[in-house]
Structures are given as C-alpha cells and as structure tokens.
Design brief:
With 244 residues, this protein is an alpha/beta fold. It contains nine helices and ten strands. The chain has two domains: 160 residues, P-loop containing nucleotide triphosphate hydrolases (Rossmann fold), CATH 3.40.50; 66 residues, Ribonucleotide Reductase Protein R1, domain 1, CATH 1.10.40. It is globular.
C-alpha cells in the first residue's frame, strides 16, 4: 500500500516544555487513523504540525511525498481540516457557505457551483440548502462543516472531534458518513469518544505527554494490554498500567 503520511521524529517544544516528543509512525493511503489521548497528550499540536499551521522544532513529516518543512504550500493543496469548532458562516445559507468555501479554495464560480451541488447531494443537504446555517441542528451543522472541508477534494482530511456535542443518533449518522468518506480520502480522526475510535478506525495511536504509547487496531491494543475491552486498553496505556 502507498504511504500517505510518514512521520519521522517529530518534536515540538515551547521553551523548556516538550509538547510532542520524538514521534514517528506512518499512515497508509485510504486508512482511517485514530489519534487518541487525554487532554494535553499532544494530539492537537501534532495535527497542527502535519497541517503546516505550526513548524516542528525537530523532525520531519511528508504528506504524499510533500515535506511539511520544505513545501508547506504544496501540503495545503492536498489536505483539509474540519475543526472542532463548527466552521460555518451562521447567516449564510447552506449553499452560500459551500460556494464561499469553493471560492476561498480558488475554484472558479461555475466549478464552485458544481462542487456545491455535489456536496449537497453527497451529504443529503437538499432540504436545507437555502436555509441559514445557524438554524440547522448541531448534527447538520457538523455535516455542513465537513462538506465545506471536502469542497476542494482533499486527499487527506483531518477530523477534529467531529461528533462533539451530538446526541447518539447524530453521532451514528456522522459515523456512517465518515465510513463512506474512507473510500476516497485518508482520514485522521481525533476524538474523546473511545467507542467512536473503536468503531471507525483501522488503526489507533494512543499518546500521552507528547509521546506515542501504543499503535495498532483496537483489537491489537486490547491483546497487547492483556485487557478485555478497548476502554480498559486505553486506560492501561495512558496510565502505563498503574491503575488497578
């Protein structure tokens, strides 16, 4: 398989504090890769480095062969980020949000309209396309936010807490949508919902204090930790087996 993301000894320091500490692993093209850890584990900083929002102190990563330190402008053309905060203009309609984002991404007006049509169809937004986005439910706002991230047809998508604050039905609907996205896109998912990571991820990396503690499928992590559930395995790795 083709490697989509290769991470080599990535490190980020803020003064004397090391936030990401010598992290190395790779992600395959088309993989849905979960990134887990308690607050302060370094997940957000790692994603900011991979998406070229902050420069590493040491180390390197390549996204589809493009170096984050040497060619950040090329990295930006192949990635998209759907942030934890729903990134929509509340007073614009669903369609206007999509067409605005298409313009921001450099698509010509006609092409932007076509991509908006495609996203509205893919995300089943037809009943709401002329509705102001602030009137949508939380679940539909999250769907619109992800659709906006996909408007440029990125090859790599970073999903940061995509179902935060949604009820169980809204989360399950988004899970089904994310599963479909895997067919065309490499996805890096951060979440605090362990069942979400277990249900969606091909592999999972668990971080603590900026370091990678474990990596593998949910079942592999259960077996390595000699536990009986993924939640127990997660607790084992983030506490280094100290909790009884």
């Amino acid at each position: 398989m083709t490697i989509a993301i290769a991470i080599d000894s990535l490190t980020k320091k803020y003064g004397a504090k090391t936030v990401v500490d010598n992290v190395s692993f790779s992600i395959q093209e088309g993989e849905l890769f979960g990134l887990l850890g308690v607050n302060g584990a370094g997940k957000t900083t790692l994603i900011k480095m991979l998406s070229c929002l902050t420069k590493p102190t040491n180390g390197e990563a390549t996204l589809l062969g493009n170096s984050i330190t040497k060619y950040p402008e090329q990295v930006h053309t192949i990635i998209a980020v759907s942030p934890q905060e729903t990134a929509i203009a509340p007073n614009l309609t669903v369609r206007e949000n999509l067409e605005l984002m298409a313009g921001v991404q450099g698509l010509k007006k006609a092409n932007g309209k076509i991509r908006a049509d495609e996203m509205i169809a893919q995300f089943s937004l037809q009943p709401y396309e002329n509705q102001r986005s602030k009137t949508l439910s939380g679940g539909w706002q999250r769907k619109l936010s992800i659709a906006m991230a996909l408007i440029s047809e990125p090859q790599i998508l970073f999903l940061d807490e995509p179902t935060l604050g949604l009820d169980i039905l809204g989360r399950r609907e988004l899970w089904a949508l994310i599963e479909k996205l895997k067919e065309k896109t490499t996805i890096i998912l951060t979440t605090h919902y362990l069942e979400e990571a277990e249900a969606l991820s091909d592999r999972i990396c668990i971080m603590k204090n900026g370091q990678m503690k474990a990596i593998g499928s949910a079942q592999e992590l259960i077996e390595i930790s000699n536990t009986t559930s993924f939640e127990d395995a997660f607790v084992y790795f983030v506490t280094e087996g100290d909790v009884q």
